[in-house]
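Build the 3D complex.
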Amino acid sequence: MPFDLDKLCGDDLFGIQCLPYGIFQPSDGSKARIGARLGDHVLDLSGMFGDAYLSASSLNSLMAQGRGTWSQLRGRIIESLERPRFRDSVVRNAHALNDVHLGMPFDVADYVDFFASEHHAANVARLFRPGTPPLHPNWKSLPVGYHGRAGTVYPSGVPVKRPWGQSASEGGVAAYGPSGKLDFELEVGFVVGRTSPIGQPVTIDEFDDYVFGVNLVCDWSARDLQAWETFPLGPFTGKSFCTSISHWVVPLAALEGARRPLGPQNPIPSSYLRGEVPPWGLDLALEVAINGNAITKPNFRDMYWSPAQMLAHMTVNGARARVGDLFASGTVSGTQEDQLGCLLEITKNGNEPITLSNGETRAYLEDGDETIFTGRALLSNGSMVGLGEVRAIVA
Amino acid sequence: MPFDLDKLCGDDLFGIQCLPYGIFQPSDGSKARIGARLGDHVLDLSGMFGDAYLSASSLNSLMAQGRGTWSQLRGRIIESLERPRFRDSVVRNAHALNDVHLGMPFDVADYVDFFASEHHAANVARLFRPGTPPLHPNWKSLPVGYHGRAGTVYPSGVPVKRPWGQSASEGGVAAYGPSGKLDFELEVGFVVGRTSPIGQPVTIDEFDDYVFGVNLVCDWSARDLQAWETFPLGPFTGKSFCTSISHWVVPLAALEGARRPLGPQNPIPSSYLRGEVPPWGLDLALEVAINGNAITKPNFRDMYWSPAQMLAHMTVNGARARVGDLFASGTVSGTQEDQLGCLLEITKNGNEPITLSNGETRAYLEDGDETIFTGRALLSNGSMVGLGEVRAIVA
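Done.
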């Protein structure tokens, strides 16, 4: 693959405006280390700059350096790409993506999953609790969330194994077997790069000091297991078997131009959920494809709660955030039929299967199905920045 | 403090039959490392044996060695205490507990909290859902559980800071402020010392290969925050501010003599929850004191679900267990009024305050209150083995 720096820095989704971070291992078998993606290449940052924290096999070491270093490093990469005198170094440290192994980008400390789309919450309620109000009384007062399993967050490409577990059967007796309702949930994740003091909430205005970057997240869900187990303590085995994330964490700085005000919040939330600026989301055009069929296209700007509100709520009780924490938005769904973020909503819990281009139908995922999430941020300057894909086959 | 080896190895709760592991830092400022408690002393195991994994500042390195090493190390410690020729080495490596700093014993990977006491589950339901069946339909089919926050598990002695958050107020509008219903939950924890393959459940008969040891756990709970947030995804900020664990992890081998058959399980659970031997619990006599007043004395043998069933359920879906995982039993409550494991049950959600010896009353915990959990295992040979205490002041 020829390395054409000018082309790579151009209007590619992963050009100079994006520069997401990840972990790669070159084909020569040398150890995994931190790289930045540039187009269809990855730049070996430890080779380019030599800082010790860049030789680590997870992004945690970079993240722990703090926001000042995040900003400086991004500046140094951009400078290297723009100035002719650095060109030799860039070329020498560029590896074609096809030639490297991409690894788990960071060690997940705690994983929290929110439920921040009103459209998703209401759609789910209409399916499971028809005739009752679609939102619980708490829903518009706080971003509802729960802790997921950090140890089963895997990078894109790791197959998702159909989970076994219990579900409800006729007569109220539990059935035990493989899930018959395996679903994806399209989510956006936020990676925390700073540890907060014990007992001290992260305020909503400190978001940029704490969040290192953004990724795509697939919250795999076994709907039958989840439905049976979920009362009264919430989802457990129906979610904890696997969560997939993209190989690439897009720096928050790359997404500044994608910030957009969210819709109105009524009632006005508690003081700790209000900041100096009105709640903002990100204009992220997302897409899910199953076996090559694009089946839904939500946009992340349609969420009710903002990422900064999620982080403030997660720590309002004094829970510390840690380097490596991942919090995800919950399923991203919009108002339209082609903007629903999971099969539960798309197929009405399997009752209205979709038809793929080869004529097959899907109520939920079948063994061998490949799901791919992609996304791009729409910047206010008219250009676009990519999010790393999430891809997994049901095994 | 004089070091009397014969006395220490005698019938002390932390004598030669117990030998729990922890992390200590000597007063000379040398680095924290792995020790074994013997009476009111701690033995410097790296000093006694020299193995590299004993110099680590968390038990994870020892746990990762596997069950064979766990067994050998315990045998070597016991041999050192029993044979006169090792006495000099033991004495040289013994530090009085008063002279050392005890640290966080292990790095928590994932933290899962169960709900495995039928008496607790039924008592809670009677308080919050009077007139409905006390157990959800799933309760006797699977050990209900959820993920807690690993990053806020702290060792005994770290003060618990009263959390702020939202609770329900009159008119259904959320109130924001400090919790007015801060509670403890007395639990028993199990520390996982082995990582399982991705996608492969840990069977119920593999329990002894995976569980390194046992500790006491306080699942601090803000009942007002919990009640408001909990639907539909379960507890979040009402629990995630703090979980306290003892400094000491008692090896599973020390508790073999405390195994007891559990009561009958009806209906018979799914096949993955049945093993070669009937479900067993541990005869652990537990106690909670507030400001020096012993207020409750549950026994862990009164649980419905067994520890092995909890681990099997946690991984039935292929979720891997990891070195450092902690799973806790949920509140341990018995059938009697003096066997209830949390203030919610003891004071009937604050409606029937308890009176302390100084005449003060408590509906829930007040600032400055000190809670202490203690426990001892009753072995079939008639002797007893201690569990490390959990102690924290509300700050």
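Residues 112 and 327 of chain A are 5 Å apart (CA to CA).
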